Amino acid sequence: MIDPAHPGLDLARRALASPRFTQALTEVTIAVALCMHALRAVIGWPGALAVLAALVVLAGLSLAGQPERVEWRGILPISLLALVGLMVVSIVWSQYPLASLGGVAYSLAFAFLGLYIALVRDTIQVVRGVGNALRFVLTASFALEILSGLLIDTPLTFLGIAGNLAQGGPVQGLAGTRNYFAFMGGLAALSFWIEYRTRSVPRGLTAFSLALAAATIVFARSPVTGLVLAAVLVAGLVLVVLRRLDAAPRRAVQSVLLISAGVAALLGWLLRQQLLALAGATADVTIRTSVWADLESFIGQYPMQGWGWLGAWQRDLYPYLVVRDAVGRQPASALNAYVDVTVQLGFIGLGLLLVALGLAFVRSWLVATERRSTVHVWPALTLVLLATTSMTESYLLVEAGFMLFVIAAFTAARERSWRGRLG
After folding, report:
1. Residue 309 φ/ψ, nearest 5 degrees
2. 255-295: per-residue pLDDT in tens?
3. Spatial contact of 360 and 408, defined as CB atoms under 8 Å apart
4. What is the mean pLDDT of residues 369-380?
5. The predicted structure's pLDDT at residue 422
6. How far apart are CA 244 and CA 253, in angstroms?
7. Mean pLDDT of 304-319
8. Helix-helix angle 97-120:78-89, to 10 degrees
9. Residue ranges making up the domain that contains 48
10. Cis before residue 319, ω within 30 degrees of 0?
11. Is the bond preceding residue 170 a cis peptide, omega within 30 degrees?
12. Residue 1 domain-assigned (yes or no)
């Protein structure tokens, strides 16, 4: 019923809490998070921050308007909360406190938006939201690439589009870099495949979507994407096998897989040069290892607590000001989320990130193997995508990557919470 004393406020609350509004806000939020580079290029940092702040306000009002639909008890992952808490506390010892304050606020905004999406949308709705947002972003990206590379044959430098489509790539689209564009393509392929398996979109749209994801991966020509997609594919095939087993044999196979995964990780590390050469990414990784080597001395100065949280680097601040890669360029990140978090939050932060990521993955993996619907595979494989990509990029810690991490972690905790079972 509408409150007769405040009919306008009550109608506004109902509108903000409606399923149609939450769906629209979810898709807009994901699209904005994926395209923050392009948004900053078009309207600058002040405009991008205003858009982000508006999304946070709308999400807060929408969340407040539907308390009956939101279940908090027992699903907030303590490990992830501890990691976010360390980001906040790091302002105290930060070597650049004002910049850390801004970096923390920026990260908290994306974390809150991820929390909002995970709380008000179920798993299939999350997948549909990600799918719709990616369809828009990738379609717009290729439209701009066609305009730049084929129609006017001129780079759109303000967006970071080089106009290489006619040469077969690499292309960047609205992502700004080919590696991030390829990451979008991998996430799109996963999300569109889940949509196909759950028959949640028309067949024609599914065909277009999968072709769009494939084109993104092919034309991005990212040198490290092959290994990342191989890891996601292997994890997906393993899940297909496990989901067909009964409970008792599944537990036995899970134990064998755990040991096998440890052995495979060790062999992968020992044979990393050969694997990188096979993937054709040796030169690209040489650039990354030079950045990691440059950061070792800075990690050693504050090994336990780090220099203070920034998230995305501010390259006019020390020590990021003096970091260079093998060809003398100033990188925009550590090009590895695990190295990046160690620089900013020390080995304590690295430990918390690994625990939060590990627990989220274990929860999501168990849910994926036990639940019948294919949609429950999405959080687990999204975490595999984020974790493996984090070996060569820092997307996990910033903007859309951090938001997806929060969404996947909270979605898995909602389905399988240790505290919820104890309660």
Report:
1. -75, 135
2. 777 677 667 766 765 665 566 566 555 667 778 888 888 89
3. yes
4. 89
5. 40
6. 12
7. 92
8. 160
9. 7-422
10. yes
11. yes
12. no
For residue 219, is pLDDT > 70? yes
- State the Cα–Cα distance between residues 237 and 249, nearest whole angstrom: 17
**CB within 8 A of 145, min separation 6: which ones?**
161, 163, 165, 171, 173, 219
Q: What is the pTM of this model?
A: 0.92
Is residue 102 one of the residues assigned to a domain?
A: yes
**CA–CA gap between residue 228 and residue 381 (Å, rounded):** 11
Q: What percent of the chain has pLDDT over 90?
A: 55
Residue 307 has pLDDT above 90, yes or no: yes
> What pLDDT, in 10s, does the model give residues 24-49?
999 999 999 999 999 999 999 999 99
Give the whole-angstrom CA distance, residue 167 versus residue 171: 10
Residue 2 in domain: no
User: Residue 105's CB: how many other CB atoms inside 10 A?
Assistant: 14
Burial (CB count <10 Å: 0-12, 13-18, 19+), residue 71: exposed
CB 79 within 8 A of CB 355: yes
Q: Is residue 420 predicted with pLDDT exceeding 60?
A: no
Residue with tokens 């003398």: 328
Q: How many domains does the chain have?
A: 1
